[in-house]
């Protein structure tokens, strides 16, 4: 009980809450081999970390986020918070930030799944023409409900997450209900991606609403992640989670759209039964 209360108190600082709301994958690259080089806005953004002064540009999010084919399957994940920064301190420090710093270098292990889902394309209507839907497409998506429950169990304890659901009218919205009656709603607003055959970078901007009656907290959260397929049974990634104040926050204009908290994660995904690849660092 105390563990859950402490975690809920630190919600606004963006520590564990993103782990429950969305799958956080972040692991420093170059564990065994350097990934292929990417050039683009997301690559430049990660290279500039932690000197960020605004959220990244992106397109309006629609439907599920589609992952590369090499994500498909069930994975054992080990996630570690490696860096926690408060760029606007001491003027602005989010509640719970110091508590989250205590999670540095503490690995968290859990199970995640990705599966091939049939994706129904939108039906476009034309005046005077009856148009039938195109054949359904397929794509690899995260099992967000399973992953959120799995990660919630690992970080908050058994039974802390009562339920996780996806809004049937808007798959961008993930709703998490907690044992003590709190609710977290996370909605993907904008996305951007860059890729090569063995490397995939993505950035998502979320609007998050945490309800703990009688209080309601609003934040914008960015996840920018660089994934690298080490081999067919291992994926490494580096992820930066940035917390931005909502317009309703009294410090919003002081922050001027700059992040108030930055968290850098490491994570390794391994297929069950895998051994660490014996590949030296160049």
Automatic annotation (TrEMBL):
Positions of the DUF6816 domain: 60-272
Q: Which domain of life is it from?
A: Bacteria
Q: Which InterPro entries match?
A: DUF6816
Q: What is this protein called?
A: DUF6816 domain-containing protein
Q: Provide the species name.
A: Lyngbya confervoides BDU141951
